[in-house]
User: What shape does this take?
Amino acid sequence: MSSEMAGVTGVADRYAVALYELAEERGALDTVSADLVTLQALLDASADLRRVIASPVVGRDAQRKALGVLAEKAGLSDITRNFIGLVASNRRAFALGGMIRAFQNRLAERRGEVTAHVATATALTPAQESALSAALKKAVGNSVSVAATVDPSLLGGMIVRVGSRMVDSSLRTKLKRLHFAMKGVG
Assistant: This one.
């Protein structure tokens, strides 16, 4: 299983580097980055789309056609549409999510940004997100982009991961600690 994931990561990294270099050469890094954010949102929203790109039963032409129509309707740039077509033609659509992450990581690294993965019980408002970003920038020392996810099981508070560091101030964790402390008393 881990060697299979390493293979997917290697494929994703190679394709992401090629797309990054092409976008940089054409001065379209921001455009391609925005396109990839849109594409990731589409992948996250549709289980059917994820099945189409992951299924070995769906033919190369059908994948290319489906992804081409999707890219067209989403209004993606020519560079991104051509890239998606190439990925589908080469039967590498299963690794699109990894390609998107690798491209965005490379872009963030170039810009000196750090990504903070934040999980909250409810969605952050734009004001909360900007305040959190400012606080993290002060703590980390670099520009911080916030990748927020919602996890209702946290009950309240948040979990913040920046690189290998993690701060868990969720209500779920605090209640677990209290539960274990109470067990020790009784």
